[in-house]
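ok so for the tutorial part 2 we go from a plain amino acid sequence to predicted structure tokens. step 1 is just haveing the sequence, like this:
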Amino acid sequence: MAGVPGGWAVHAHGRRISGGHAGGFRTGTALGRGPGEDPFPGLRSGPLRQDGGRPALPVLLRCGRRSPEPAPGGRRSIAASGLPLHPEPDGRTDPLGVKSRLQGEQMSLQHSAPSSIQEKLVPLGEGRFRFACHPGVPCFTECCRELNLFLTPYDIVRMKRHLEMTAEAFIDTYCDVRFEEGRQVPMVYLAMRDNERKTCPFVSARGCEIYDDRPSACRTYPLARASRKHKLHGVFLENYFLLKEDHCRGFEEDRSWSIEEWIQNQGLAPYHEMNNLWMEIVTDARLKRALAERQLQVFYLGSYDLDRFRSFVFGSRFLALFDLPETEVEPLRKDDEALLRLAFRWLRFSLLNDDSLRLRQPAAASP
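step 2 — the prediction. this is what the tokens look like for a chain of 367 residues:
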């Protein structure tokens, strides 16, 4: 993940582009434990290792092939769901930052992207684009190799569920987990096959074998999306760019799309909703500083290991500590999306010190 100044998040097909911000953390019972109680039942704990001044993954995070350095970028070397690019507008003369966005952010994204693709990013604005991908296109599946493909928590939920695997088994089998320059939390990338073409593990001559649950970066392509939540108004702002790669012949097809039509056709709405919630967390300034081992455990558990988070919710004092309505609790046993939303609230409460969860009030003492 390359460092980028400011407050936007970028999602495209390939390497994640990001920035950061800085802040205060909760500990003790706020993390879901009573005195002397381990807040992560069943997880192995261990010391942090240091590598070049950056924290390495805690031993307890059994997450497959750990890669402290980003994998070498291939032809497709930008990521896909939004990361910080530009200072927040003050909101006084331009309440939604529209002028700033139109005049500055597009150029900022192009200049912040890896040099290999800077000239391939074309601002779309409200325009249309021509594109189609199918087995009849000469380059079919060519974009499914040599990828530095960032996965969001919701990507992992959809893919592991499609494959009928636990999150832990999916990450162990198919992913690299990395710490990267300028970011203090681990990011998950899809590992390419160890073959000559470095192909995606889910691509075949027929196309994508998990197409209905493919990652958001693959759905977004050939677009790149820059998104950010406006601090004053709470709305998500976004820009779209066309990533025109030399190998892609899909742009020669006759099918025409608006951005809205592409989002609907590719089923991106639920991905945008869930990815926006998580991007708010990982681009927050308070995750800029080095995190303690427990904080890294919190981040990993709430972001990537949903099955163990479910065990944590129902197997620890979590429900005794946090005041959740019973109507919200029962669906958490089987509804992965509801559980992931709770995990994000827990991350905000635990790492960002906000009020996304409410602690139960102690019972009043008897007179």
